[in-house]
Amino acid sequence: MSPVWLVTGAAGMLARDVLARLAGEEATPVAAGRDVVDITDAASVRAAFEKHRPAVVVNCAAWTAVDDAETQEEAALRVNGTGARILAEACREHGAVLLQVSTDYVLAGDAAQPYAEDAPTGPRSAYGRTKLEGERAVLDVLPEAGYVVRTAWLYGAGGGNFVRTMIKLEDVKDTLDVVDDQRGQPTWTVDLADRLVRLGQGALAGTAPAGVYHGTSGGETTWFGLTREIFRLLGADPERVRPTTSEVFVRPAPRPAFSVLGHDRWKAAGIEPIRDWRDALGEAFPTLLAAERG
């Protein structure tokens, strides 16, 4: 009998691609939206585990409204922190593996070189603090079966994101002013979904050590650089994209200035890190364009 993979947050952009990736594997995927399991409710989680008996849980459920978390940190913590702990405790009870999707926001964002997986954390926003609580819960409760996969700058066809927004704005704006003082790694959800599945398979096989992994593309750029590449792929003039600073777009939650993550940990699991962001974007683009423009 194939192992059951319970994927929480099933309606989300990443979860959709995880479920699609599992369709081609020896696995029984369970799409667990909130109607199936509320990760903040221990009774709901317990019932889901008793019904489905998962071998692997991929936790894509999260409070992702970064700015709203600044004034609703307790509510964000219930999902990102408490919810992760409840899942981890259920996994421990049932002998399941947990893949916890986390974020670059748990780091200070002020480095000058890629953050290693064991770099000190130092979140500067409520969102980052709540996600860090989730990381700690998973690693504490499941030292041998807990996997934290940090990602950043996600885009995909299954939801709203920066790349799709820029595709839309190219149609209606003569010029665009885009931040050029935040560096990161644009990451396609299809690529991340593949690594999550392979990591879970490695966990079941005993070939992937538990701990922290960084699930972002190779290379690095700024939001400005990413937008120029989007315009190039659209056949539009990249000069219509103009650089600006974060000070022009002040938000309630501070954004990391440096979100470039290192990927050395994948070697221990025998899995290749995600490819360069430009290569991924080029392959993803027809799908993204179709999703945005129909």
UniProtKB/TrEMBL annotation:
One matching Pfam family: RmlD_sub_bind
Domain spans labelled RmlD-like substrate binding: 6-285
SUPFAM superfamilies assigned to the protein according to its UniProt record, in alphabetical order: NAD(P)-binding Rossmann-fold domains
Coiled-coil region(s): none
GO MF terms held by the record: dTDP-4-dehydrorhamnose reductase activity
Keywords, sorted A to Z: NADP, Oxidoreductase
EC number: 1.1.1.133
Record pathway: Carbohydrate biosynthesis; dTDP-L-rhamnose biosynthesis
InterPro entries linked: dTDP_dehydrorham_reduct, NAD(P)-bd_dom_sf, RmlD-like-bd
Biological role stated in the UniProt entry: Catalyzes the reduction of dTDP-6-deoxy-L-lyxo-4-hexulose to yield dTDP-L-rhamnose.
Family in the record: Belongs to the dTDP-4-dehydrorhamnose reductase family.
Name of the protein described by the UniProt record: dTDP-4-dehydrorhamnose reductase
Record gene name: rfbD
